[in-house]
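Researcher: Good morning. I'm working through a list of sequences from a screen, and I'd like to move beyond sequence-only analysis. For each chain I'm collecting a predicted structure so we can compare shapes side by side. This is the next one on the list. No need for commentary yet; just the structure.
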Amino acid sequence: MTRTVYLAVFNSILFPAHWGLWIPTVEKPELGKMIQVNGDPLSGFQHDFERNCNIKDTKRTHTLFVLAEIEDRFVLDLPPNADNPQEPAAIDKIEQKAFAIPPPTKSLRSSANAAMKKVDIKNCQTWLCELVDALVADHIFPKSAIQVMKDAPRN
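Model: Good morning. Structure tokens for this chain:
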């Protein structure tokens, strides 16, 4: 059996869009896991895996883009009543890969900083691109997933 994996894009007019990896469960497609990093370039980011998340409960406007059809052996769904669904430990191959990609650290500097060189700002989008690249390299995602990421809305 295969599972559909989506790029979830939470659009913003003023700021870069938030990106996450959405993997719906087999039984209830509105439930699933959101694999993402949360934070900001000034403070840094942290891994955030929301398991048994209901995508319909989100208050933010979002769009889902199909990234990949993958073998279900790469994804483990927790029962809906599982304790501590946000436990910070990988439970499947996708989560293992996600934890292996470090979340972006602080990438913005104070204007008081004397070094005035170009800043390479890292955020949830750059992290998710790295994760998708790693999943493609391991032949879990098809190469076409990279193009989906390149074409996705940035705001």
